[in-house]
Design goal:
Largest sheet: none
Radius of gyration: 17 Å
Strand content: under 5%
Structural class: mainly alpha
Number of strands: 0
Helix content: over 70%
Oligomer: single chain
Order of helices and strands: HHHHHH
Number of helices: 6
């Protein structure tokens, strides 16, 4: 592994460590909220709540993107593995024991898309996605930490 690859991994580790902390904070802020379609529809009338939900969804999306789309391929390259389409990379991470389920990660990706792209039009979709996202945060955090821990154990970061 060259110096540039090591620097990239170290950068991703620092960024993802921060993202985990930020998402954990936002999750605490929304953990007691029940996101029904009715409550999601109220976001347009409650700026403070909308900002809290926006922080949660943004942090959820960033951690999902950076872990699955950036750290995972960089981790695979560091191990000398071939990288490919996202599903192939996820399957490989699952086979190597760092991800519980590639299919579940794809569900998380779909939730991310629903929260980011479809929330304006459908309070039902947003409410369901927010409730599911709260439950999936530990899955995302565990996967990110598994990748970082493996890199640390190998002395790559």
């Amino acid at each position: 592994m060259n110096h540039e690859q090591r620097e990239r991994l170290a950068f991703l580790q620092r960024v993802i460590d921060k993202e985990i902390r930020y998402l954990d904070y936002s999750l605490q802020q929304v953990s007691d909220m029940e996101f029904t379609a009715e409550n999601a529809a109220k976001l347009s009338a409650d700026d403070a709540l909308a900002e809290t939900v926006e922080a949660f969804t943004s942090r959820f999306a960033r951690l999902q993107d950076n872990t699955g789309d950036k750290l995972l391929p960089a981790w695979l390259k560091a191990l000398g593995e071939r990288t490919g389409a996202a599903i192939d990379n996820l399957d490989r991470a699952e086979k190597l024991g760092l991800l519980d389920s590639a299919d579940r990660w794809l569900e998380i990706r779909q939730l991310r898309n629903q929260m980011v792209h479809e929330y304006i039009e459908s309070p039902q979709i947003l409410g369901n996605a927010l409730e599911a996202a709260k439950a999936y945060c530990p899955v995302m955090i565990r996967f990110a930490r598994n990748l970082i821990c493996d890199l640390q154990q190998r002395g790559l970061v």
